[in-house]
Amino acid sequence: xKIKNILVALDLSELDITLIxxxxxLAKNYGTENVYFIHNVKKYEISNLFSEQLENINIEExxxxxxxxxxxxxxNTDCNYELLVSDDAYTESLISYVANKYHTxxxxxxxxxxxxxxxxxxxxxxxxxxxxxLLIPKEANLNPENLMVATDFSSASLKAFHTASDxxxxxxxxxxxxxxxxxxxxxxxxxxxDKAREKVEKHVDQQFEKLLQKTKNQQIETLKxxxxxxxxxxxxxxxxxxxxxxxxxxxxKGHNNFTSLxxxxxxxxxxxxxLHVPLWVVKRYITS
Length: 288
Known about the structure:
Elements: E1 5-9, H1 15-30, E2 34-40, H2 59-74, E3 80-86, H3 91-101, E4 106-110, H4 120-128, E5 132-136, E6 146-150, H5 155-171, E7 174-181, H6 193-212, E8 220-226, H7 232-242, E9 247-251, H8 265-271, E10 279-282
Parallel strand pairs: 1-2, 1-4, 2-3, 4-5, 6-7, 6-9, 7-8, 9-10
Antiparallel strand pairs: 5-10
Helix pairs in contact: 3-4, 7-8
């Protein structure tokens, strides 16, 4: 797999350095040809109180110079790059538009969901993007060695599995495949929980066997777990963090796939929470 074009969203926060370094690592490994760094100024957020002081100052020029310095310092890959600074009311729409214009294969954004309200742009972007999206937290490992893919054995998650397997081969990283299942409560009065779990686990093992037959990567560890009282995203997050996962791969949607325009609830919940693991969302349908 080749990632020809990457788009990186910068916001002048401390996360920018991590995003630039991470993009540099990926561009080297995937033979990337073009990287587009983008920043949205959002002038409308500047209070009228400061309009006089800023009247003769070219904000875009100052921001562009600062970002160019950071990119020049931390982006050390031999490929083309371009910095785009814009002033748009809707950041997610701007990123989606630029990604489509330049036929981007991957959008990289920072995970700032620890701050109140900061995850909203990421959630909207996930729904609008037509290419893969990678959400990076500040503590991301720049040399990913432990990869994990969450699967529900749907055709969409199979694509995520292949993406993770490809990276595992490139990075010579370990890869774990995880399935988290939840037995509906309404079955409990009629079926003993132990028997229900045993039946589900047997089914999961059979599905894993079929899945592994579809890949050349034989060094894959399989994990299965019941969500119990947790939601499936909560359980996936807990297992990923417990296993010190460096990148968690998920499909944009699972079995409940009514339309390609909808993002799966499990993926969106993972995407908009305080996840301390990079989250790579693999889109099933990609429009060039």
